[in-house]
Structures are given as structure tokens and as C-alpha cells.
Amino acid sequence: MEECDLPIEETPMEPISESFEIKQDENNYKLNINTLDEYIIFNISEEKQFMREYELKLSFDQLRQIHKKFFNFSSFQEFINFIEIMIDDKNISIKKDKENQIFLELKFEYLYKWNIVKLELNQKRMNFKLIFQDLYNKIDTLNDKYKILEINYNKIIEENKIIREENKIIKKENINLKERLINLENIINIPQKNLSEKNYNHQDIINKKKLPYLINSSIMNLDEFYIIKAAIEERIKKEIKNIIKLYQSTIDGDDPSIFHMKCDNIPNTLILYHSAGNRRFGGFTSKPWSTDNEEIIDINCFLFSLDNKKIYPPKNNNYFEIDCYFGNGPSFSIKGDYIVQYDKNSDINKTLKTKEYGYKEIFDGNNNALSEDGICKGIYTKECEVFQILF
User: Fold this and answer.
1) What pLDDT sits at residue 195?
2) Largest interatomic CA distance in the chain
3) Which domains does the chain have, with CATH numbers?
4) Residue 94, CA atoms < 13 Å, CB-side half-sphere
5) Residue 184's pLDDT is what?
6) Is the pLDDT of residue 234 over 50?
7) Contact 75, 12 (CB under 8 A)
8) What phi-psi label fits residue 243: left (phi over 0), alpha (psi between -120 and 50 degrees) or beta?
9) Between the CA of residue 342 and those of 40, 274, 374, what are the distances in Å?
């Protein structure tokens, strides 16, 4: 007997459209199955990458040739019902190979064995409809966010108006407070004998000064002080709480004896000089001044230039000394050789002498790092101020 092919029955081509969701791992896929004329069309779209669509178009005869089981179906509807059962039983999945090719994998039992059938799908056009829909959704979301931002912006404007009014009040209070602090500074600088006569408590007055760093100086401004402050705190390892003016040559007198009367036996002092050539410089020492006619080494001592905004610490294992002599005002030296000497008794027109040229390693080779005359000829002192630093 001659072999012949199995007869293929004519299948009614009723229009069918079904949609299924396939959830696996972290991805959700949408599977659409439609019939068109004599074909069944599989369409898959990814939820996360919705613009990508994949499609497979098969005739009923092509479907039957894929696997013998499909000969049992007499219509597309029976095949779709089979797919629905597969989805419910989780025997259908969507796979991708190394080349990112996508296919449907069907797992079913046939003749008492498990069979796996792969239906390879081709990438379709971009789904611009979904793209536009997503863009519209994002625009709506942005509009909602914009409305919220607009509301918050209006609130901020109203709050700023209130803050401006409050700032005006604070500025007025600050002006009054500064005036009170200036008066307090003057009280602090009253000679000790007057304080005792009026029963002033020196420490109480200091504690009542709530705002530190109100610098009552004709030489140094607040920004310059903060540079010096950082250098002091780095050496002393303590935070500065307050600063008190002890001496000012143009008010108290420029005789060294007055300086010693007001500043001796007080540690942690900041000395400022203002020369006739408008050069501003100074030094800090943690040791107290005295009239013991000796040089006292201070490992925390350093010099600085306010004009250059530079700190000059000692180098090469040397330390600055403070010259504690009755005939000198605040003076600094190294191994008995002065670098800054304030001596009114030597020459009334040359009260301030500096010697940077002999210590180039300290002053970075600048012979005039401190004053306009760094070769010890001497210059006139326009102003000298001494402050006590409190920690």
C-alpha cells in the first residue's frame, strides 16, 4: 500500500482575539493572540520595555507541522484554549537566547512524555502608541509636581517676607547690642584700681559679654582676626572664647612702663603693630610679659603679617622669645637677637624696628615681610595694641 499524508481538515477561520499576562522573574509580558484570515498571530510586548514588540504569524497548516499534538485541534479556538490552560499551569514561558532573540516555550505532556516546543518570535516595529501614552502619563505627573512646586514656591515667598521683617528687627537689636558691648569693652579696660573702687567684678563683666570676637581694634578687622584665631587654636589646642583689649598706645600712652603696668603677668596675648608706612603686623605669645630683664622662650609663639595674611612660625628647631625688659614694649627675638623691637627710649622717631633680612627661612625670603624697613634702621610707630586671649 502506498503511503499518503494525513488529511488536513479545513478549519473555520472565525475572528478571535485573546490577551494574556505572563509574569515571570521581575518582568511582566503581555501576550496577544489574534486571527486574521487564515493565520494566527502571536504578539508579545514587555511591560518594562513597552516600545518593543515581538510577533509570530502562522497558518493552521504551519501550526500542525510544528508538533503532532496540534493535529488534535480542529480550530484556532481550541489551540487558544490550550494556551490558556498552559498559562494557568505555568507551563508556558518567555525566553531569550544569547543573541537576545525572544521565543515562547511550551511544555506539555504527549504520549506519556514531556515535550518542549519553542515558538520563535521576530521583533516588530516600535509601539509608538504606547510610547506616546507613557509620555502623556509622565507629562501629567510632571504637571502635578509642578502644581505642588508652585504651591511650595508661593509659601516660600510668603515665608521670606516674614523673614525679611524679622531680619529688620534683628538688625536693629544687633545695633543696640553692639553699642552695649562697646560700652562693656570700655568698662573692661578701666584700670584695675578703678574697678575695685567701683566694686566691679572683672570675671562677671567678661562672662556677660555674650558675643565673642567683637574686635575693638583700629589695626585689625574681624576677617583678619579669624586667620590669627585659627593659628592660635592650632597651637594651644583650645577654642577661643573671648578677646579683651589690654593696651592701646594712642590712648594709654606709648611709654613701655605703661605697657608693662597694663599687660604684665597676663598669659596668651596678641600684639598688633601699625607702622608709619601703614604696614600692619604682630605676634602671639602664650607666656606672660614681665620686667625681669630676660628673654623667655615660647614654643607657641609666632609672628604674622595682616597685610600679607600670612603666619610666620619659627623654623629649623628655633623658637621665638619674648623680650621682657623694662625699657622695651612688646618685642620678639630668637636666641637674644630681636626680630621685632618696640623701644620708645632709643629714639622717639624710631620706636619700632624689625629685622626680617637675617631670618629669610622664616619669612620666605621676604626682607620686608613685616614692615617697610626690614633692616633694623627703625621706623615710627603709628599704633600698638595688646589683647588678652581667653580660652
Assistant:
1) 37
2) 144
3) 17-129 (2.170.210.20), 182-209 (no CATH), 212-390 (no CATH)
4) 25
5) 67
6) yes
7) yes
8) beta
9) 106, 12, 14
Distance CA 132, CA 323 (A): 85
CB 389 within 8 A of CB 268: yes
What are the helix (H) ranges across 89-189?
128-188
pLDDT band at residue 277, thresholds of 50, 70 and 90? confident
Phi (first) and psi of residue 127, to 5 degrees? -90, 85
List the strands of the sheet with 332-334, edge to edge. Answer: 294-297, 321-324, 332-334, 337-342, 352-354
69: which DSSP letter? G
Residue 332, CA distances (Å) to 259, 341, 369 in order:
15, 6, 15
Listed in sequence order, the residues at least 6 apart from 218 whose beta carbon sits closer than 8 Å to its beta carbon are 248, 250, 274, 383, 385
Phi first, then psi, for residue 136 (nearest 5°) are -60, -40
- b/e for 161-192, b at 16 or more Cβ within 10 A? eeeeeeeeeeeeeeeeeeeebeebbebbbeee
Question: Is residue 343 pLDDT above 90, yes or no?
Answer: no
What pLDDT digit, counting tens, does each position of 10-57 carry? 444 568 888 888 887 777 888 888 888 788 888 888 766 555 778 888
Average of per-residue pLDDT across 150-176: 83
pTM: 0.47
**CB within 8 Å of 321: residues ≥ 6 apart:** 295, 296, 297, 298, 301, 332, 333, 334, 335, 336
* Comparison of pLDDT for 8 and 21, the residue scoring more: 21
Which one has a higher pLDDT value, 197 or 55?
55
Phi, psi of 234, deg, nearest 5: -65, -35
Read off the C-alpha cell for 16.
478571535
Other beta carbons less than 10 A from residue 375's beta carbon:
14
254 vs 285 pLDDT, higher one? 285
The residue written with cell numbers 566694686 in the block is 199
d(CA 351, CA 276): 10
Residue matched to cell numbers 567684678: 201
